[in-house]
């Protein structure tokens, strides 16, 4: 209900909730099902985006050229590494599926 940059504050609140969810599930990983843990940890991707939006809209240094360069650099790095991870994961799934099919075909 803040009158000061309400959208920026909203991004910050959402980021905080996402961060708490990711952190709490990290601390309790051994007590949680793997599938649930993975689903919650996928929230780290929107967390980066929402945090960036909050910083760009509410940050006192958001107009600084250094801030802009660093923000674009960090976001670009995260995007590239995410794409690499997706490609590697897809290749590994294909390789595992091919190995499983080959193993099933060779069984009498």
Number of helices: 4
Q: Give the biggest sheet.
A: none
Distance between the termini: 68 Å
Order of helices and strands: HHHH
Low-confidence stretches: none
Q: What helical percentage do the residues reach?
A: over 70%
What is the mean predicted local confidence, pLDDT? 89
Beta-strand content estimate: under 5%
Total number of strands:
0
Radius of gyration: 20 Å
Shape estimate: elongated
- The secondary-structure class comes to mainly alpha
Secondary-structure blueprint:
Blueprint: H1 6-27, H2 34-41, H3 44-58, H4 65-106
Helix pairs in contact: 1-3
Please explain how this structure is put together.
The chain is mostly helical and 108 residues long. It is built from four helices and no strands. Helix 1 runs antiparallel to helix 3. The termini are far apart. The mean pLDDT is 89.
Structure in a nutshell:
The chain has 108 residues and is an all-alpha fold. The chain is built from 4 helices and no strands.
Keywords:
single chain, 108 residues, mainly alpha, 4 helices, 81% helix, 0% strand
């Amino acid at each position: 209900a803040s009158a000061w940059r309400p959208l920026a504050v909203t991004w910050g609140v959402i980021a905080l909730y996402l961060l708490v969810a990711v952190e709490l599930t990290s601390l309790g990983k051994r007590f949680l099902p793997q599938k649930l843990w993975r689903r919650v940890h996928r929230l780290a991707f929107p967390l980066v985006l929402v945090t960036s939006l909050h910083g760009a809209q509410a940050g006192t240094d958001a107009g600084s050229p250094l801030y802009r360069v660093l923000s674009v650099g960090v976001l670009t790095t995260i995007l590239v590494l995410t794409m690499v991870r997706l490609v590697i994961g897809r290749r590994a799934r294909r390789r595992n599926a091919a190995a499983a099919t080959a193993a099933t075909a060779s069984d009498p």
